[in-house]
Amino acid sequence: MTITVAELLEMPHLRLRLLSGRDGLQREVSWTHTSDLPEPWQWLTGGELLMTNGMSFPKTAGEQEELLRRLMGAGASALAIGEKMYCPPLTARFTEVSESLSLPVLLVDYPMPFIAISRAVAAANLLEQSDRLIRTERIYYALQRSVTEKRKPSQLATALSQQLGCALHVCHRESAEPWFPDSPGLDERLRQALSQAHLGSRQVSAGAFVTYLGDGREMRLADIPTQPGAVLVLVSDGQSVLDAILMQHAATVIALEMSQALVDLEHRRRQGAEFLARLIDGSAEPRGGRSQLLEAGIDPASAVLYAVSSDDSARLREVHVALWRNGVPHLVVHRSGVLYLLAHDKERVLRIVHSHVGPSASVGVSSPVKTMDRIPEAAREARWASQSAEHNKTPTFRYGEATPFLGVSGIDDAMALVDRVLGRLLEHESKHRGELLPTLESFFDHQRSWQKTANALHVHRQTVLYRIRKVEDITGLNLDRTRDIAELWLALQARSMLPGAAEPEGTGRNAHRARGSDDRAGDDR
Length: 525
Fold this sequence. Notes:
The chain is of the alpha+beta class.
């Protein structure tokens, strides 16, 4: 049984005297904590006897009152002050507040060492330590059963909650959503509190960040080892004292469970990436591929391909984790800096992707896949739409929507424009050194300045002039005419949005199609 403040006072060898707070003598003392810091309540978990020599003790009545109220809020059992040390005079208001809060204030006779009091509390609480050892064993046994019996992570969280004596949730730090897909969501008050919580909060309690929810509950946030994107959320009734040691054991167990879940997820992602790569390449057997998709929870009839590009490659690499956490069936493959995602056509998928990747994401959505043999074409559509999103500076672009500044709605329209305007130039480039097209692009990039283009290409101004005149001869267009300038620029923009446009080999419609699907050396292969 845990020792009380009254029982400590009854130990004559400790030489303790009660100053105030007599009504709180039955408060239990689970541990002692020595501190001369200005805000000692930040380092308490509840149930401690705080001992101080008063080096940083407040001097004014208002500050002394705040100290007592803060200690009470942190769950301190009592305050012990060393006599004849550094503590300033205690005010009448201090003793009045101590009495009203029923928070005992003890005086430690000089030169009684604080360590003697700590030993007395530790010896008296051996039974509590034995109980902690039993509960620690149960925490790790819960992990063992979770692994051997292949239990759901939510079942592990329930078992840990029973040992800690509070509700336990594992959440994604940024979104405040459950980290495991089978876990129940948080209630609205708790979710909002988690969304607003910051690790820089001054409300710290033994390694956990504390928020008072306003309904009698307390929320504590603890880091999970090796998982910076997740947080352990502990919700107590504000009356019981959470054991900080058991809390850290629970965080360790959750970290192990998460690590195993991520290993399994990565294995499935790699298998799915290989399968999706074959589907995009058109090398997968249609009937078997359809069955495999249905087993993965994806119906081709209602699925689309998403192409996602972003400057934040690290977040792009973790999109599949966000989808898994939200229970979205999917396949992903990374190719040339672009994430291709096969999933059902739902706004929820777009919300998850944009929320995870952030404002730098450009998402293109293909037309419905419907049949297995249309997946390669859907991949090209998605990439076209993604390029359109980038050009139009819009988060999401669906294939088939008219591109405002080009007036084309898809790959076929774009290829027709490119073939009509640039076809002969592309054919010339494929047979020669390929200097004319880059020069034309640079010429437009530098506002048709001969000298700036020459500087950018590290050639003589006369060379640029010669190449541009050559372009005019081949295309039959005159770069002194506004209409011809606009036509060439639009064709270049359309070409830049075609899948594989950066590759120089081949020309014409068939070449564009080949380049759009020939990406077999992708990032996941």
